[in-house]
TrEMBL record:
InterPro entries tied to this protein: Coatomer_complex_subunit, WD40/YVTN_repeat-like_dom_sf, WD40_PAC1, WD40_repeat_CS, WD40_repeat_dom_sf, WD40_rpt
Record Gene3D superfamilies: YVTN repeat-like/Quinoprotein amine dehydrogenase (2.130.10.10)
Subcellular location: Cytoplasmic vesicle membrane
Entry protein name: Uncharacterized protein
WD repeat segments: 150-192, 193-236, 237-269
Pfam families: WD40
Protein's organism: Aegilops tauschii subsp. strangulata
High-level lineage: Eukaryota, Viridiplantae, Streptophyta, Embryophyta, Tracheophyta
Principal location class: membrane
Length: 333
């Protein structure tokens, strides 16, 4: 049977390169455009940058905040980007040849807390989450808040994600050790998933055998697989004492990808949850995204963004690859 693997340049030459701009500080978040070869990165310096993933060149750069940028997303149908900063502001820009301000607004009264967001796939909605408070914003109504959800989380919300199979629902991951599933129609959560023993940093939805599951990553050194029908954990992916900073379900391949604070990217089968590949990128991983129309995956880490290929190869499962300065082309902006 075929095995899905991530491979480094040292093994097969499929790590394409690394995008770096040392002037804007660490990369803390990333998103990839699904119809254009564009990557957006958010930085600890308050900068947001847009890169062309084919040329590995920066095409736009702007300082959106004096504080950390904690989340960035494309709103492709509007040709907008949206960024959340740690001072609880959401910033919206139109991207053409240059970045033009659309709006900027405060989503929570606090400061210096983690702020997350997600964009609805079809409706004019953006979710924000700051210090346990989730709100729904409608850009067709002049960015008015149309729903405030009950403050059920007791700590920072690290991730918000709309359900691709049921876009009226979404999930939230929190530093209070829980994952909650919500409906847009109700201010109360539908249910809570308990099982992690530390902060939950990330989550994603995926399908397996026709049923929907959720993967969550935590500071407890595990990623957990949740059966959303049974509302329980059915498998735990151990990370060998390393914090799981980001999880990602590939949209077209039966594979789950996890990134750790140890600088390792692990690729798992989403059918039997077996570890297929481990690749060292050399810095804590803070974002994973599939690039437009390909099996390439972008990996955001403190030092930049690495681009790698997921192939359909035999007999490579379980082996490890490593990348170092000599195996990655560093591209200056």
């Amino acid at each position: 049977s075929s095995i899905l693997v991530v491979v480094s340049l040292l093994l097969t030459g499929m790590l394409f390169g690394q995008i770096i701009d040392d002037t804007v500080g660490w990369v803390l978040c990333m998103d990839a455009h699904q119809t254009e070869p564009l990557i957006i990165t958010g930085h600890e310096s308050g900068y947001v940058q847009i890169w062309n993933s084919d040329t590995q060149k920066v095409v736009a750069s702007i300082k959106v905040s004096q504080d950390i940028v904690s989340k960035v997303k494309f709103i492709a149908r509007k040709r907008w980007i949206v960024a959340a900063s740690r001072d609880c502001f959401v910033h919206v820009y139109k991207y053409e040849k240059e970045l033009e301000t659309v709006t900027s607004f405060k989503v929570h009264d606090g400061d210096f807390v983690w702020c997350s967001l997600d964009v609805h796939p079809t409706q004019p909605y953006v979710l924000s989450g700051c210090f346990g408070q989730i709100k729904l914003w409608d850009w067709d109504q002049d960015w008015n808040c149309i729903q405030t959800f009950e403050k059920e989380h007791s700590d920072d919300i690290r991730e918000l994600k709309f359900n691709p199979e049921d876009t009226n629902s979404f999930a939230s991951a929190s530093d209070d050790y829980t994952v909650k599933v919500w409906s847009l129609d109700s201010p109360k959560s539908k249910y809570t998933l308990f099982g992690h023993s530390h902060h939950v940093y990330c989550l994603d939805f995926f399908k397996r055998d026709g049923q929907q599951y959720l993967i969550s990553g935590s500071r407890d050194d595990t990623a957990k697989i949740w059966d959303l029908q049974k509302k329980e954990c059915v498998h735990t992916l151990e990370h060998e004492y390393e914090v799981v900073c980001y999880v990602f379900a590939h949209p077209s391949l039966p594979v789950l990808i996890t990134g750790g604070r140890d600088g390792a990217v692990r690729v798992w089968s989403s059918t039997d949850f077996r570890l297929k590949k481990k690749l060292e990128v050399g810095a804590p991983v803070y974002g994973l995204a599939c690039l437009m129309g390909s099996e390439r995956v972008a990996v955001a880490h403190f030092d930049g963004v690495s681009v790698m290929e997921i192939g359909d190869e035999e007999g490579q499962g379980g082996c490890e690859g490593s990348s170092n300065e000599n195996s990655i082309a560093a591209i200056d902006s």
